[in-house]
Write a structure and sequence with these properties.
By secondary structure, this protein is of the alpha+beta class. The chain has 21 helices and 26 strands. Strands 17, 18, 19, 20, 23 and 26 form a six-stranded antiparallel beta sheet that branches.
């Protein structure tokens, strides 16, 4: 019989009341060291975590960023079998690749450890033994699948069979990769061992179960009452788990690879990888801070934040917190800002099918463009719903936003400062400033305030937009002021300081130039501070051009009007970003096509869609029928009726209209390529059919949040696909 748990006093304390934190501990999910990391991993948790950490460092807060490779579990042993090497060989190889890739992209871990380290094995074993000694586990003997030829019990991933839902003959014992259904080996039709290809048999085995069900009252109070501020996707998934009811869960497995169960009668047993993996955060902190690690894990004035993908929510919000509570000495996470999934060219990322953009390959193919990837992934971050990486979107984000907006403003400012002000920061002339000048400083302060609110809420995509929008305002300000036109009044000699200003017109021109360039330079310095958490390499380049030290990037300097002193010499301009050419993108698209074999279950891959065409063009016209799909493909599309409530032309885009579409539950911005067929005033009030679950995509700097269906007749004329009679906005289409 298992003893009743002896709850520590810490368990009964009022939860979520400690807000005056003295230190912050940030963790990012430990990637499996069975392969490299890809863009989906980055967008899911590593890039958001790094942005948050860099911002908190700039605020001079005591913060530690913990990461490492998860080197135990079935994926490691499967990779070892495929490559004909040992599990240790696998983790040594991929740990090095992952660590190097993170460093090159600027993911600024304070420690990047690995769960094969001795300190981790000791920490995990001690943690398990503490719970065991407290009577927390129940020993159970159950029947599990066993491979008689290989003489080993089979983990779920070592068992394949026919999926009972979609009939995929190669479904795994834990999930069907074709239809996505979560499974258990018992549900598979005609199961077989992946080790020998023989049907497995059932044999009895003993394991230790953690009573997760006994933690339901605590979890209901801690999460559902105490953390209503968590992201809706996280809170909703937790609520669903708790509403469905929790059950005891085995925390050991039959294997030789992993942390050995620290009990005398546990030969051939290791800790379940999802028991020891989160303990890796603790052991890595010990490695970083051997003398003070407890301050970050066992003091209630520590703010603990886990950055993860949505597939890890249950482990970080339900299981690991219950383990920490059962232990009794550890703090609980203040927040778990999990992201959704990032798809690739309209398809789910699949490492088994090699349908991925691997980070280490990107770094080789685009040297010096680390910040471009950071920018694009942040701009399409799947913070509340799945989003889509496309190579055309990547190119557009770089060329239309980084180059044309942010980089353009900085370059124009530096070029004109050297040409019109002798390479020095000119004076401000307070008495000659107008509202446009003062409004830029107001915009700087407002942007800082908005960013702080957004970053506190882990809304990194919106915070980045505020920085780019501020640079856009700088371009508009400079264009309106036209200092190059004012310079014509002075001539080359007066610009060079030869001779005095003889007329009131010359005095006014000189002051206008000085004010404009001074304002733009102070704005540039603020942009360096604000962009730093997102694009640290870009911020470093800007600091070099400004000849300032790293301390200027402290967040307390954001919003200030006198970051660069009058008369200070600045270096020559340096291009922050280069244009990415069509040929480079076509090369990546061809590479991706070539590395993607047929989809699981025998179907063909849908191929790569030009996302800009998919959003802005009609769905199809006269001619051949597209490849056949099954009902499950169609069922993924969410079609709703919407009403266009506003419309306008997109600047410098002949084909695009920017539409505001009322969907009943919300109003969305949708960019549609119908401007050659309809005037804006003609479409207002029209009811339309909208694909509402299409991943958002930026076009001409505008995020389009859906696609409007159009029909094209034989003459090429477009027609809205809409209901025969007017109905309520938001009505489903089936």
């Amino acid at each position: 019989m298992r003893l009743r748990p002896r709850w520590p006093a810490f368990f009964t304390k009022e939860m979520n009341t400690m807000k005056d934190y003295k230190r912050i501990l940030v963790t990012a999910a430990l990637p499996y060291a069975n392969g490299p990391v890809h863009v989906g991993h980055l967008a899911g948790c590593y890039l958001p975590a790094d942005i948050y950490v860099r911002w908190e460092r700039a605020r001079k807060n005591d913060i530690k960023f913990i990461g490492g490779s998860d080197e135990h579990g079935v994926p490691i042993t499967i990779r070892a079998m495929k490559e004909g090497i040992t599990p240790q060989d696998v983790v040594d190889k991929y740990h090095a690749i992952i660590k190097d890739s993170f460093e090159k992209l600027g993911i600024s871990f304070d420690v990047y450890s690995r769960t094969s380290n001795k300190v981790h094995h000791e920490t995990s074993a001690d943690f398990f033994k503490k719970l065991y000694d407290d009577g927390m586990f129940e020993e159970k003997e159950t029947e599990q699948y066993y491979d008689e030829e290989k003489q080993t019990f089979l983990a779920d991933r070592y068992i394949t069979g026919t999926c009972p839902v979609c009939s995929n003959p190669n479904a795994y014992g834990d999930q069907c990769e074709k239809c996505g259904t979560s499974l258990s080996p018992e549900q598979l039709i005609s199961p077989r061992s992946t080790l020998s290809n023989n049907p497995p048999v059932k044999r009895k085995t003993k394991h230790w179960y953690f009573p997760l069900n006994e933690f339901e009252p605590f979890l209901n109070e801690w999460i559902l009452q105490g953390h209503t501020e968590w992201k809706t996707n996280v809170f909703g998934q937790c609520k669903s788990w708790l509403t469905s009811g929790l059950h005891p869960r085995a925390m050991t497995r039959d294997s030789q690879w992993g942390v050995q169960v620290p009990l005398p009668d546990a030969e051939g047993k290791v800790l379940y990888v999802w028991f020891d993996a989160p303990i890796g955060y603790i052991s890595a902190t010990k490695e970083l801070l051997p003398d003070t690690w407890q301050d970050y894990w066992q003091q209630e004035d520590t703010k603990l934040v886990h950055f993860i993908g949505k597939d890890n929510i249950v482990f970080h919000c339900i299981i690991f917190p219950s383990m920490l509570k059962a232990h009794g000495k550890y703090v609980l996470p203040d927040n778990v800002p999990a992201n959704e999934f990032l798809n690739l060219e309209g398809e789910k990322v699949s490492t088994s099918r090699n349908w991925a953009v691997w980070l280490h390959e990107y770094l080789e193919d685009f040297p010096g463009c680390e910040d471009v990837l950071r920018y694009y992934l942040t701009s399409i971050a799947p913070e509340t719903k799945d989003s889509d990486f496309t190579w055309k979107g990547f190119q557009d984000a770089n060329n239309s936003e980084l180059v044309s907006i942010f980089g353009n403003f900085i370059n124009r400012t530096w070029v004109l400062m050297h040409k019109l002000c002798g390479g020095k920061v000119p004076p401000l002339h307070l008495d000659a400033m107008d509202d446009d000048d003062r409004n830029i400083f107001n915009d700087i302060r407002a942007t800082k305030h908005k960013m702080e609110q957004l970053l506190e809420q882990y809304k990194f995509r919106d915070a980045l937009f505020e920085v780019i929008d501020l640079a856009r305002k700088g371009n508009q300000y400079m264009q309106k002021k036209e200092p190059w036109i004012k310079a014509k009044v002075l001539g080359d000699d007066l610009l060079a300081g030869k001779g005095g200003l003889a007329t009131p017109e010359q005095v006014a021109a000189r002051q206008s130039i000085d004010i404009t360039m001074h304002v733009c330079l102070q704005l540039s310095a603020n942009l360096a501070i604000m962009i730093n958490p997102f694009l640290p390499g870009t911020a470093r380049k800007m600091m070099h051009m400004m000849k300032v030290v790293e301390k200027m990037l402290d967040w307390e300097n954001a919003g200030k009007e006198k970051l660069l002193s009058t008369g200070y010499n600045l270096r020559a301009p340096e291009l922050l970003f280069r244009k990415i050419e069509d040929a480079e993108i076509e090369k990546q698209i061809e590479k991706l096509k070539g590395q993607s074999p047929p989809a699981p279950g025998g179907g063909e891959n849908k191929g790569i869609v030009n996302a800009s065409e998919a959003v802005s063009s009609p769905a199809g016209g006269q001619g051949a029928v597209k490849p056949e799909i099954v009902f499950d493909d169609f069922a993924k599309i969410d079609l709703r009726v919407g009403t266009i409530v506003a419309a306008e032309k997109v600047e410098k885009a002949d084909k695009l209209l920017k539409l505001q579409v009322d969907l009943g539950f919300e109003t969305r911005t949708i960019v549609s390529g119908i401007a050659l067929h309809f005037k804006p005033e003609e479409v207002v009030g029209k009811q339309v059919t909208v694909v509402v679950n299409l991943a958002p995509r930026k076009m001409r700097g505008i995020e389009s949040q859906g696609m409007i269906l159009m029909a094209e007749d034989a003459s090429g004329k477009l027609h809205f696909v809409n209901p025969e009679d007017k109905i309520n906005a938001g009505a489903g289409v089936s």
